[in-house]
Design a protein that fits this description.
Helicase_C-like; helicase; binds adenosine-5'-diphosphate; hydrolase; double-stranded RNA binding; ATP binding; 8-stranded mixed β-sheet; binds magnesium ion; globular; alpha/beta
Length: about 675
């Protein structure tokens, strides 16, 4: 059991009328009623005046006050955008989609007409679209084609506190665009920076002391409990806490549990369902919420459950601020988040589960106080909380920048003088430029210009490592296969491995398995899927994810269209997979690991000097003898460091396909 202690009161309260049913009804009239209750409506008139008056402003308001869904509508009702379009950025793809769907429903229209969204590989807009939700990455990509972003008259950069690399870079892009459009007497650009909590001073200074508007929040007190002792296994602690609370709390109190990713959510979901069969307490409905979840399943979170049933939502930090979930009474906060980091000297990236910031902790707890006073259980100690940083470090400070720098250079910006709120470490910039140079995208790494290859690379909406693979494929006569693989790697997990049918799923996987590794295995799955006549049924029989495979097909189509525009020859390497693996290495040369030691003592060490294991879910897990060298797609650091999506390669290939890097690597070792 997990003992909790030390009550802390969070958030001051100013209670107003609560309409607990406001999410159950769906008619536009009812929706309007619900919207009128939102805090933004209380200050609608003043807000619109300020928006008309100011060219740049910062808007701060509690999660759920109606910033994201209402403000674009209010602006549009007044036609403040004029002939232009309103863009609203979101750091997460899933948020952009669900919010656009919600706003379309509120405006009693179809998504894709007046309201639309644009996320990577999916553009649901039309020439009529006036309110466009898009990921920050998409707007950044649009800026490479039009750095002045002329089609937008208003750009709202939402969730500014997330400080994703794309949003951070966009701050600079829109600031420069606004200035230039103003100087050139073009159509003016209005900027609104929105967030729940953020470092206001830094932002204000960056945007030339622009006005800051605070929305009066409507939150209720949340009582916070910390765990008495350090928890070694937060998943286990979460399940224990859920059932402790489940036995003692009324059924109409919904729970929200913060976890780090899809697999973890699926495991916890399975455990809850198993234990629920025996546990005392009301019936349970478990709803997952993570980025890769199909939209229809995401909407479950907002769906009403039968009276007397408890809803337990298992979410990633997407539920922290990007989407608002009603009726949460208890928040269970594991205190961790999955973050991407990288090693500058080698360019190797990894995903890590790490403690989240204090700000994130407050945000998570705050989710329990949206419609009534609530409770938050932190599965970590008060001392642990106190020792954490207040704000999390902006992504730009800890992330690889090759992809972003390529876009910046393509947009005509000068990477070293570009205005940023927080500058990335000079070493990261240097290493990223070096990587771009080794990929052949830029001519030099001091005053870089795009090469012909780099220009082509910037046309693909994918990481430069992947576009390099595609652009190398003609040389290895394997563009057909490379397109399929890059499409698969750009989508989510193809395998559907329900925890309760693990053995069956593994048996089904056997027939696709390649001794060469996961990449060819994935290719086998994709090829078989394309040939299968009854795809849905075939996926079910083979424990494959139909939605993700369909998505990969669409992605492939779009990548193929770009290749065709570039007059590339789509040839196949047939069974000569060595060609394909060498081609993969052309883009992923920073992702090699070498076998050290022999026999049972053999271990892999990456170019970054990290000892990394083969993940049990991979095709090479049981292959013996261990291959002398591996190519991995991702490193995942949990308690251990794992290589994900791995193929066996010959050590000398690295020297053949990326001699410059191979030399650098050897010098480092
Ligand atoms: P903010 O951006 O200030 O955090 P939002 O505009 O996202 O607030 O949300 C405003 C309100 O709309 C919230 O109370 C939320 O519960 C509701 N809402 C948002 N999306 C949905 C949805 N998909 N289904 C039902 N209600 C939603
Ligand atoms: Mg919002």
């Amino acid at each position: 059991s997990v003992a909790h202690t030390s009550k802390v009161e969070a958030n001051g309260c100013n209670n107003t009328h609560v309409n607990d049913n406001m999410f159950d009804k769906e008619s536009p009239q009812d929706l309007l009623e619900a919207r009128r209750q939102l805090p933004v409506y209380m200050v609608k008139k003043r807000l619109l005046e300020e928006i008309k008056k100011n060219n740049t402003m910062i808007l701060i308001g509690e999660t759920g006050s109606g910033k994201t869904t209402q403000i674009p509508q209010l602006i549009h009702e007044q036609r403040i955008e004029g002939a232009g379009t309103i863009a609203i950025t979101q750091p997460r793809r899933v948020a952009a989609i669900t919010i656009a769907l919600r706003v379309a429903a509120e405006m009693n229209t179809e998504v894709g007409s007046i309201v639309g969204y644009s996320v990577r590989f999916e553009d649901v807009t039309s020439p009529r679209t006036k309110v466009k939700y898009l990921t920050d990455g998409m707007l950044l990509r649009e800026a490479t084609l039009d750095p002045l972003l002329k089609k937008y008259s208003i750009i709202i950069l939402d969730e500014a506190h997330e400080r994703t690399v794309s949003t951070d870079v966009l701050f600079g892009i829109v600031k420069l665009a606004q200035k230039e459009r103003n100087e050139e007497k073009m159509n003016p650009l209005k900027l609104i920076i929105m967030s729940a909590t953020m470092d206001v001073d830094a932002f204000r200074k960056y945007f030339n002391n622009c006005p800051v508007i605070y929305l009066e929040g409507r939150t209720y007190p949340v009582t916070i409990y910390h765990s008495k002792m350090k928890q070694d296994d937060y998943q286990y602690a979460a399940v224990c806490t859920i059932f402790q609370l489940h036995a003692t709390t009324p059924a109409n109190h919904d729970f929200l549990v913060f976890l780090t990713g899809q697999e973890e959510i699926e495991t916890v979901m399975y455990n809850i369902k198993q234990i629920a069969k025996e546990a005392t307490g009301p019936p349970i409905r478990v709803c997952p919420l993570y980025a890769g979840l199909p939209a229809a399943k995401q909407l479950q979170v907002w769906r009403v459950v039968p009276p007397g049933t408890r809803k337990i939502i298992l979410a990633t930090n997407i539920a922290e601020a990007s989407v608002t979930i009603p009726r949460i009474k208890c928040v269970i906060d594991t205190g961790v988040v999955k973050e991407r980091t990288w090693c500058g000297s080698t360019g190797a990236e990894r995903l890590m589960v790490r403690p989240c910031s204090q700000a994130a902790g407050w945000q998570r707890a705050g989710r329990a106080g949206r419609t009534a006073p609530g409770l938050a259980y932190r599965l970590y100690t008060a001392a642990d909380f106190k020792a954490r940083h207040y704000h999390h470090t902006p992504e730009i400070v800890r992330c690889p920048l090759a992809s972003t720098l390529l876009l910046l250079i393509a947009a005509g910006a000068e990477p070293t003088t570009f205005p940023l709120i927080d500058a990335p470490p000079p070493d990261t910039v240097k290493a990223s430029l070096l990587l771009l140079k080794e990929l052949g995208a830029i001519d030099n790494d001091t005053n870089p210009k795009l090469t012909v290859l780099g220009k082509k690379m910037s046309m693909f909406p994918i990481d430069p490592k992947y576009s390099k693979i595609l652009l190398s494929a003609t040389e290895y006569s394997c563009l057909d296969e490379a397109l399929s693989l890059v499409a698969v790697l750009s989508s989510q997990n193809l395998f559907h491995t329900p925890v309760y049918k693990r053995a069956e799923a593994l048996t089904a996987k056997q027939k696709f398995l390649s001794p060469l590794g996961d990449h060819i295995t994935l290719l086998n799955v994709f090829k078989a899927f394309c040939k299968a006549p009854l795809k849905k049924q075939w996926c079910r029989e083979n424990y494959l994810n139909h939605k993700n495979l369909t998505y990969a097909c669409e992605v492939r189509q779009q990548l193929l269209a770009i290749c065709q525009k570039l007059n590339m020859n789509v040839s196949s390497c047939g069974q000569a997979y060595e060609q394909l693996l060498k081609c993969l290495l052309c883009g992923l040369f920073t992702n090699c690991a070498w076998l050290r030691g022999v026999g049972a003592g053999g271990r892999y060490v990456t170019a970054g000097g990290t000892a990394a294991g083969l993940h049990p879910s991979g095709s090479l897990h049981t292959v013996r003898p261990l291959p002398p060298a591996l190519l991995y797609t991702e490193l995942l650091q949990t308690n251990r460091c794992y290589m994900l999506t791995v193929s066996a390669i010959q050590p000398q290939w690295l020297h053949q396909v990326a001699p410059e890097y191979a030399r650098r690597c050897r010098a480092n070792r």
